[in-house]
Amino acid sequence: MRLTQYTDLGLRLLIYLASTPGQSASLGEIADAYGVSKAHLKKAAQAMAANGLLETRRGKSGGIKLIRDPATVVIGSVVRLLEPDMHLVECMRPNNECVITPVCRLRRVVHEVRAAALKAFDSYTLADIVGEPEQVAQLRELLDISP
């Protein structure tokens, strides 16, 4: 199983914002901190803002901000939001064309694997991922975030 870059960037965006509670940051700052595309981050930010995780403001004093308590942001929910196509093999796709589907047991196994992965993601919140104050301090240092 592999998450897309979109989901990876969305999760890293949340980690950045959770390490700066109550503060706004620009997409440019976050993109620079991670060395990634601002355009890719923007797409993930828009999806999460539309689903009530982030607040976005335009203009000189604009930016994005986490508006939910990190302890209430379930990682599995974020993965489902950002990773809508979790069809890991051909037979899981709506227009499946695999000729062995009628007798193949792979689909059931892959369904179980996907369910287990989502269950694991569901057992963690953003607060769990960001960690305790000492881990937050290390994150801030690694991302070059001012105190």
From TrEMBL:
Pfam family, one: Rrf2
Top-level taxon: Bacteria
Keywords of the record: DNA-binding
GO cellular component assignments: cytosol
GO MF annotations, alphabetized: DNA binding; DNA-binding transcription factor activity
InterPro entries: Tscrpt_reg_Rrf2 (IPR000944), WH-like_DNA-bd_sf (IPR036388), WH_DNA-bd_sf (IPR036390)
Name the record gives this protein: Rrf2 family transcriptional regulator
The organism of origin for this protein: Wenzhouxiangella limi
